[in-house]
Amino acid sequence: MPFSELSQAFKLKDSNKGTHCYFSPKGKIALMMLKNYYGCSDKKLIELLNGNIFMQFFCDILIPIDKPLTNFKIVSQIRMELSKGLNIRKSQEILPKNWIPFMSDLDKIFTDATCYESEVRFPTNQKLLWECIQWNYKQMEALCGKLKIKLPRTKFLDWCRRYNEYSKKRKKQSKHRTKVTRGLLKLLYKLNAELNKIENQNYFEATKKYKNQRSLIAKVYQQQSQIFKTGKSVPDRIISISKSYIRPIVRGKEVKQVEFGAKVNKIQIDGINFIEHIQYRAFNEGTRLQSTVFCAQNLTKTKVRMLGANAIYATNKNRTFATSNNIQTDFVRKGKAGKNEEQRKILAKEIKKERATRLEGSFGKEKEHYNLKKIKAKTQKSEMLWIFFGIHTGNALEIGKRILKQQQMLAA
């Protein structure tokens, strides 16, 4: 890993002012890699770091035995610091410069999209409404206590009991869901109105976070009211007030029809994966084939000659682009067969086989072994950083194995 170049890309530097930072710029990046490699909690990671001298060397620190690190929150603080300086495109351009000597077939790429799920509870309308109600009531209690005014009367305590009874039911019938949703919508409307009244009649300094959350809950009420009246979903649907940037991504899989997290369009070059595009909303990856080819050529400085992708990429526009640039694909042929049809079929079969095993296999490998099955970060930027280090930790280990194999061959 080119730690010094990555430190510059993340805008990390040692400052002479203020308290001395425990971790160096290299150590901060190394610690994030260890987080994805071990797949443990922040607290467990610090415990491992205290007792493992090799991990300390890797992170460029030496922890005294009698003075171990106890503040495990330093991991999340470093994650937040790095997430502010994350530029995926700029950082990824640094990595191939060091990895290309150990890569082959640079003119052959594979591309596909996958979803890295965030750790959120499965969203239902009733859960979302109850979360909004709880937040509103908690804020109303705090404001009334601070302003020394009487707490308005609501049916919140009655609904605590009723919602607990509803949530404990194993089978929630449609009539029960309708009844509970109607009551929760009325209660949320009442709490929104009471909070507006308190804000208008009393002066206090509202924080930016408070204002954003209030506007978010107002939007949730509008969306849920529309869903309750029409019975249909709404565009730009909010599923969580703690992670308001997440949107439902309908994938149509047998096991999971809907996923909640970041959708990533990826490029694979000789088993090494790179992020082409990442977004928290559903997008059609088939429209990104041209940008994928240009991104791969920019990373490797090599013209793409062979491309493997699934059927969603096989649009007329993409076929024309591939033909005009002499790129061989594994798309199903349209029109009459050419002179070299048999050779084309054999080549397309081999490309398809390699894409299905190598690229799609790497998705499962990253999710199972590099802590990307459920992203447990709390903000959008830190989630993107988590994904970035998960993918490139796997890449670094693969390159390391190739370097070791090369050294063994030379020694033999």
Task: Please sum up the structure shown.
This protein has 412 residues and is of the alpha/beta class. It has 14 helices and 6 strands. The model has no long low-confidence stretch (mean pLDDT 90).
Strand/helix succession: HHHHHHEHHHHEEEHEHEHH
Strand tally: 6
CA-CA gap between termini: 26 Å
Strand content: 5-15%
> Main sheet, how many strands, which sense, barrel?
6 strands, mixed
| Cα gyration radius (Å) | 26 Å
Q: Treating each run of at least 4 consecutive H or I residues as one helix, how many helices? A: 14
Q: Helix/strand/pairing class, anyone?
A: alpha/beta
Give the CATH architecture of the largest domain: 2-Layer Sandwich
Number of domains: 3
How much helix, percentage-wise, in residues?
Answer: 55-70%
- CATH topology-level name of the largest domain: Nucleotidyltransferase, domain 5
Shape: globular
What is the averaged pLDDT score? 90
CATH class of the largest domain: Alpha Beta
Q: Low-confidence parts, pLDDT < 50 over ≥5 residues?
A: none
Write the layout of secondary structure elements.
Layout: H1 3-9, H2 25-38, H3 42-51, H4 53-58, H5 74-84, H6 88-99, E1 108-117, H7 125-147, H8 156-167, H9 174-201, H10 208-230, E2 248-250, E3 258-269, E4 272-279, H11 289-300, E5 306-308, H12 316-324, E6 328-329, H13 341-369, H14 380-411
Parallel strand pairs: 1-5, 5-6
Antiparallel strand pairs: 1-3, 2-3, 3-4
